[in-house]
Specification:
Layout lengths: L3 H15 L3 H7 L2 H30 L1
């Protein structure tokens, strides 16, 4: 579950991908679209964390 700061990060992340400002992008999104972006960002973030954990395990073992 994303906290409020992470939800903003998710919208910023997707806006950068679309090459549009956060404000302009956020203003055109429906709540359903935001929910989809949050889920997508959470998957991205979890994969990033898992990769970092694996990298650290290789270093420390």
């Amino acid at each position: 579950m994303l906290n409020n700061a992470q939800r903003i990060d998710a919208i910023v992340w997707k806006a950068k991908d679309k090459k549009i400002s956060y404000g302009a992008f956020s203003s055109i999104l429906t709540e359903g679209q935001k929910a989809e972006i949050y889920q997508e960002y959470e998957s991205y973030w979890n994969a990033k964390l898992d990769a970092e954990r694996k990298r650290l395990e290789r270093i420390t073992c």
